[in-house]
Amino acid sequence: MREITPAEVADRPLVDVREQQEWDAGHAVDAIHIPMSEVVARLSEVPDGAAVICRSGARSAQVVAYLEQQGLDAVNVAGGTLSWAQAGRPMVGTVA
């Protein structure tokens, strides 16, 4: 599984796999919200080449492994939304 830093996301589509209440509290601007529990059912909505993010990087790593098994190109955002916010990347709301 490949990991990238928030700064390396660049033009990749960003998929946030956190649960609804986490998303509502704060998320990356322009992220696509597909909770981890819905990834299998909504696989067709996951863009190839996606950068996958969660709070700290653990859940998104599991999702990336699954996406790769399905033949999609996906990378994990190291450190999750915590690192994203710390790096000063654009956010809607805040991450606690």
TrEMBL record:
Domain Rhodanese: 8-93
The organism of origin for this protein: Agrococcus terreus
One Pfam family, short name: Rhodanese
SUPFAM superfamilies: Rhodanese/Cell cycle control phosphatase
Full protein name: Sulfurtransferase
Signal peptide coordinates: none
